[in-house]
């Protein structure tokens, strides 16, 4: 009992209420640590964004997982979350140029199966955060400064100060080093790597369409489509597990980020007509998420970074500020960095590290 009592006194502040932060809070609380999660946004989830509308739920953020995502699948099993296969039955469509109509083709039969989460990806967030108190999970707490003290570490937000034994940041590294002030100078190598670490999802524009019926299935189509010319580059069936709500979801050309939503939708409607005829234009609902416009995801940076550049770099496997500061999050994971699986893998690393430390 004395060991447990000593552990409870160890206070961990986690910056960020996305998958990484919520998972760390969930695991550390189970291990007996005192935790507080500070989320800058008015919603939890980060790059998981299951949006509910009058018709159904659509995924405008992280959507799929695969059989080789062992840690994430294990978590889903623990939380009693069910998975279902992404529908790919039927022909796919491919648009090679503006001058030719999309061509039908069969998807390879041996491709890796993608899975979705019954009820939406946000189901993971709901299950992880179910037992957090209002004090343990606080929204609208944007961190602006971290002060390293002799026997503690302080986290300052725009409206409060939190004191802890250890701070774990799950912010994307580039966002962290450019938006948070530190009382002690961070390692220069860390700053260099962080500024050249690609942030997962920041280049994506995701869109979703809801339809009354899955008309594409009636045409022998899977709903899968690819285009060399855009505006959408990929599109997939987005009907729910119960097959009671029907939709399509995909990715837009990143070059459209600075256009208006109305402009993008107009261009999509024209492309839907090319792909599916008049039925493609008869959707009930359209929505989108331009992740490059999300201030709480990344900072403007003119440097081009290849996808997953410096994800899982060894510099993130160290602790800082006299052992009181750890940088976590999907981008820091040495396994599947920049994916949901990476967030869970890195979280497990840190939980093990803190159990050994304290």
Automatic annotation (TrEMBL):
Matching Pfam families: Amino_oxidase, NAD_binding_8
Q: Where is the Amine oxidase domain?
A: 92-348
What is the residue range of the signal peptide feature?
A: none
Cite the InterPro entries for this sequence.
Amino_oxidase, FAD/NAD-bd_sf, Flavin_MAO
Q: Which family does it belong to?
A: Belongs to the flavin monoamine oxidase family.
> Could you tell me which PANTHER family the record lists for this protein?
AMINE OXIDASE, AMINE OXIDASE [FLAVIN-CONTAINING] B
What is the protein's name according to its record?
Flavin monoamine oxidase family protein
């Amino acid at each position: 009992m004395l060991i447990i009592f000593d552990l409870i006194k160890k206070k961990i502040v986690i910056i960020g209420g996305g998958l990484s932060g919520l998972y760390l809070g969930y695991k550390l609380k189970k291990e007996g640590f005192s935790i507080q999660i500070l989320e800058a946004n008015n919603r939890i989830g980060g790059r998981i964004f299951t949006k509910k509308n009058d018709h159904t739920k659509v995924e405008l953020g992280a959507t799929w997982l695969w059989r080789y995502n062992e840690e994430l699948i294990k978590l889903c099993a623990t939380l009693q979350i069910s998975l279902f296969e992404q529908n790919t039955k039927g022909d796919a469509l491919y648009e090679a140029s503006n001058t030719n109509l999309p061509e039908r083709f069969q998807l390879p039969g041996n491709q890796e199966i993608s899975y979705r989460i019954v009820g939406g990806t946000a189901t993971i967030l709901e299950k992880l955060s179910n037992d957090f108190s209002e004090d343990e999970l606080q929204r609208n707490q944007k961190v602006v400064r971290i002060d390293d003290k002799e026997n503690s570490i302080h986290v300052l937000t725009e409206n409060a100060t939190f004191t802890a034994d250890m701070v774990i940041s799950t912010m994307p590294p580039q966002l962290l080093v450019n938006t948070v002030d530190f009382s002690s100078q961070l390692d220069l190598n860390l700053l260099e790597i962080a500024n050249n670490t690609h942030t997962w999802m920041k280049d994506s524009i995701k869109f979703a369409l809801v339809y009354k019926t899955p008309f594409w299935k009636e045409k022998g189509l899977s709903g899968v489509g690819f285009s060399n010319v855009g505006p959408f580059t990929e599109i997939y069936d987005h009907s729910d597990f119960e097959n009671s709500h029907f939709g399509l979801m995909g990715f837009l050309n990143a070059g459209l980020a600075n256009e208006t939503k109305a402009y993008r939708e107009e261009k999509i409607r024209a492309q839907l007509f090319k792909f599916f005829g008049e039925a493609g234009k008869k959707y009930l609902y359209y929505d989108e998420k331009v992740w490059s416009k999300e201030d709480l995801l990344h900072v403007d940076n003119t440097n081009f970074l290849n996808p997953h550049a410096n994800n899982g770099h060894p510099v993130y496997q160290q602790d800082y500020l006299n052992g009181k500061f750890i940088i976590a999050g999907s981008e820091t994971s040495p396994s599947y960095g920049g994916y949901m699986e990476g967030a869970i893998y890195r979280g497990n690393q840190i939980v093990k590290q803190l159990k050994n430390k304290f």
